[in-house]
Amino acid sequence: MNSLPVPSLLGVFGHPDDESLLAGGVLAQHAAAGAATAVVTATWAHDSHRAGELADALDILGAGRPRMLGFADARIPDSAPDQPRLCDAPLEEVAGLIVKHIRAVRPQVVVTHDAYGQLTGHPDHLRTHQATLLAFHAAGLEHLYPQAGAPWQPDALYAATHPDSGVGELGVLLARVGKKVLSVPDEHVTETVDVSDCTDRKMAAILAHRSEAARERPLPGILSRLPAAERQSIIATEHFTLLGRKPAPDGVVLRLSR
User: For residue 15, which of 40, 37, 36, 38 has the smallest C-alpha distance?
Assistant: First the structure.
């Protein structure tokens, strides 16, 4: 068993529900172990129905209150009326907002989307990945985004991802509704975390995104219609790729798992 303290954790994701689908198990494990956890969500307005669903999901996972940047979803402009789509917003502006949250939360580990934008390649996932990469490195430098608070450099940045060998039935289900399946070579995965001890909480958080669970094509809806055993096999493991670490000669990379 890993004897190191469980690190504090900040997830940065594109939409409400990404946090539960991609890192719900790790968030729940860390919270249960007493670590501070939080989530930044890049799209949807603070007063939208999905903000309320996000609040419910984060409460289940023990990840605090919603921290929403308020940009519009690339495919649903009405998700944040009068605000630009995330994919149209200047990259440095988005990064600066994420820096502000990193400096406020002061996490040891940050988790975001992978370079593909997860299996389906959603443009909001890609933009969030790009902005979080910039924010991770900028957050520790006092002369970058000085208005965003005192510098704080997290120890490690990870991308939630899916290895080629781990897509399995999930890939079949996504292809069946006409979605892309973009996985990474197995050797790109640096952390594989067994979250089978908290799949009940993870699935409850996924289903808290009620509007997505009621639809046919979104993943919460797909998972909600599966038999329990099949659903369990899909959500019981989470995979991550190390993207960056604290620039210190004696720094160590903190494991995501306990």
Answer: 40
Judge residue 29's burial from the number of C-beta atoms within 10 Å of its C-beta, 0-12 exposed, 13-18 middle, 19 or more buried: buried
CA 94 to CA 85: how far, in whole Å?
11
CB 241 within 8 A of CB 114: yes
Q: pTM here? A: 0.94
pLDDT of 55 reads 98
For 66: left if phi > 0, alpha if psi spans -120 to 50, otherwise beta; the answer is: beta
Confidence of residue 254 (pLDDT cuts 50, 70, 90): very low
Could you give the 3-state DSSP secondary structure of residue 68? Answer: strand
Among candidate residues 11, 9, 43, the one with its CA nearest the CA of residue 132? 11
- On whether the CB atoms of residues 173 and 225 are closer than 8 A, the answer is no
- Count of other CB atoms within 10 angstroms of residue 178: 7
pLDDT at 97 over 90: yes
Q: What is the pLDDT of residue 255?
A: 55
- CA dihedral for 210, 86, 244, 98, sign (positive or negative): negative
The one-letter amino acid code at 64 reads G
| Structure-token pair, residue 235 | 């959500």
